[in-house]
Amino acid sequence: MARKKSQTSPQSPPTTASTAIQPQQQQQQQQPAQPNQQKLNRPTQVFKPPKKISFFKRSIIWYESSFAISMLEPWEKILLHTFALALVFLLYFGVSRYLPGHLRRIAERVTFYIYGSESGLQG
């Protein structure tokens, strides 16, 4: 078996920073400068979003980005949506329960102001 020679031998002088740089400078001087032909590390494909996203998906993205919901943790999203759903339910209940009677009363007052009596044209 042949023994490998060690990297440092007693005959070779110690390398310094200036001697280590010299071979690199020689290689750079030997190569002609071609700035226009340098290869750049560019990706071969550029990310393009899908052309068609469903309306539902676009609505979710718009909703989460507009109200910063995308930064919340899942339990915070559930709590926020539960609270919002409760408010919407209360609003719907109030409108469906009290709005018809309120509109009827407004209509009676308008007829009184126009015709002078609540019966309208019958009077």
SSE map:
Blueprint: H1 17-30, H2 55-66, H3 74-115
What is the structure about, briefly put?
The protein has 123 residues and is mainly α.
Q: Can you tell me the overall shape?
A: elongated
Helical element count?
Answer: 3
Distance between the termini: 127 Å
Question: What does the average pLDDT come to?
Answer: 77
- How much of the sequence lies in strands comes to under 5%
Series of H and E elements: HHH
Count of extended strands: 0
Oligomer: single chain
User: Which structural class should the secondary elements be placed in?
Assistant: mainly alpha
Radius of gyration: 41 Å
Question: Helical proportion?
Answer: 55-70%
Largest sheet: none
Poorly predicted segments = none
What does this structure look like?
The protein has 123 residues and is mostly helical. The chain is built from 3 helices and no strands.
List the keywords.
single chain; about 120 residues; mainly alpha; about 0% strand
